[in-house]
Description:
The complex is a heterodimer of chains A (121) and B (169). Chain A is mainly α and 121 residues long. Chain A has helices at residues 7-12, 31-40, 43-51, 55-74, 81-120. Chain A is rod-shaped. The relative contact order of chain A is 0.08. With 169 residues, chain B is mainly α. In chain B, 52% of the residues lie in helices and 0% in strands. Chain B contains 6 helices and no strands. Chain B has helices spanning 13-18, 37-47, 49-57, 64-80, 86-121, 134-142. In chain B, helix 2 (37-47) packs across helix 3 (49-57), helix 2 (37-47) crosses helix 4 and helix 3 packs antiparallel against helix 4 (64-80). Chain B is elongated, with a radius of gyration of 27 Å. In chain B, 27% of the residues are buried. Classes of the chains: A mainly alpha (121), B mainly alpha (169). At the A-B interface, helix 3, helix 4 and helix 5 of A face helix 2, helix 3, helix 4, helix 5 and helix 6 of B.
Amino acid sequence: MNPKRCAACKxxxxxxxxxxxxxxxxxxxxxxxxxxxHRIYGAGNVSxxxxxxxxxxxxxxxESLSFEAKCRVEDPVYGCVGMISLLQTQIQKTQxxxxxxxxxxxxAQAKHSQTQVNEFM
Amino acid sequence: MRGHEPRSSSxxxxxxxxxxxxxxxxxxxxxxxxxxQITFAKVHKVFGASNVSKLLxxxxxxxxxxxxxxxAYEADVRLKDPVYGCIGAIASLQKKMLELQxxxxxxxxxxxAHNASGVNNNNNHVLSTLDDSPQLAAFLDLVPYxxxxxxxxxxxxxxxxxxxxxxxx
Lengths: 121, 169
């Protein structure tokens, strides 16, 4: 067997051809990356997804798939969707807090103006 | 001779797509009704039926519908954005969150400055910071956010919420 097989071909126990679609993105030094992606998506699906993308986008696609696969392994029920939901809730709370703070500023400005008018008179 | 087994008319969406008999113990049937074939098609395209089956078998039964919902969401987003999938959405939301935190820090600094000058000009009146003031309620409707956005390079305050670094910025 070719000792320079990529992590995917090592995992799948097959020969790693020169034009292997996985080898640029799954170096043998990081076997867990492919193992995680394969567990969630399957090698066949990942291969199809990569084939449908232009070459220059494939590295980013692999990184995003890897991140989502890790999230799904850590949280099998919600995966990375849990993070989206949490962020959306936090954003709503923060927007409310911002609105309140800005309203307090407006109240303070109004009171300050009134005080100045009273002092003038 | 063993004939072709007819598919049940009550096959779930998964078994219909996979062209197999839908058994009473089918793991997909409670979550992929035959009336919605598209959802399973998307999930199958991204994750594969056997991976989904494994995932579902690894979670308690009462959490399987939530699992299917999140898988369907992820699959849908991945099909719309094959490069970034949900990560694109996460990165956008994190950026929005950071902007809001910055805006709050700026607004709070302004409020503190007002409080400080207010202490000098009136009878040490401490401004209410909370919700139930009728003045505040009136202003919540009138003050547009954009009026008070200031460009300010000062650091974020304790409102920073630790959500981890986005993989893509």
